[in-house]
Amino acid sequence: MEATVTDLLSSLQRAGLLPSKVIPSDFTPSFLLNVRFPGADADTRHGALMRVSQVQSAPALSITTSNLSNSGAAPPPTTTTYTLMMIDPDAPTPNDPKFAYWRHWVVAHIPLPVGKDEAESRVLQLDEDGRVLTQYLAPGPKDESRPHRYLFLLFAEPEGGRKLEKVDVGGEEFVERRSFRADEFIERHGLRLVAVQWMLGAGDGWREE
Predict the structure, then answer these.
(1) How confident is the model over 36-82, as pLDDT tens digits?
(2) 147: domain range?
(3) Which residue, of 6, 21, 26, 198, has the greatest Cβ tally within 10 A?
(4) CA pseudo-torsion sign 74, 89, 170, 104
(5) Is 173 part of any domain?
(6) Cβ distance 86 to 146 under 8 Å?
(7) Which CDD domains does this chain map to (predicted)?
(8) Residue by residue, what is the 3-state secondary structure of 49-112?
(9) Number of domains into which the chain is organized
């Protein structure tokens, strides 16, 4: 596999995210998912640590398929729309994740941008083209908590599937976002995982011992 794909899968395994309820053991990406928060100099990837103050605004997401066709990765899906999900498996703390998964952001029916070539990074126009089912809520781990793991998951939607609505994921209120059964949601709506990215999130005052 291409080094970036191998690094991603290895980082997920080391973090205890592969396999999991939302990432199957045989997962291979069809796309490389890139996440960049406003003001950041580089993409956030493979478990990079971000502080609360750095993630207050929703990030820009893009995909690339450069060299994936010859890397052993899964072929790009033939579907035309996608669902993005950002969830926290470590809520309220990694030591006591009784509120996992915490639902931070869900956008459905995102059309895949057309690129001129495989190497081009294609930005996902989430708010403009997708249907926002859960507005972005910035991570807020406490300073006394160990860093949380945050997953960005991109799914291919089934052709001819029912249009997803806000009621399918739940309310926007703070307490309504906790204990989201992401795995059940994925299975119920026939979503297929095609790309993953993840980061660590910590309070501004957290210091590693």
Answers:
(1) 999 898 899 999 999 999 999 999 999 987 655 445 556 566 668 99
(2) 3-202
(3) 198
(4) negative
(5) yes
(6) no
(7) PEBP_euk
(8) EEEHHHCCCCCEEEEECCCHHHCCCCCCCCCCEEEEEEEECCCCECCECCCCCEEEEEEEEEEC
(9) 1
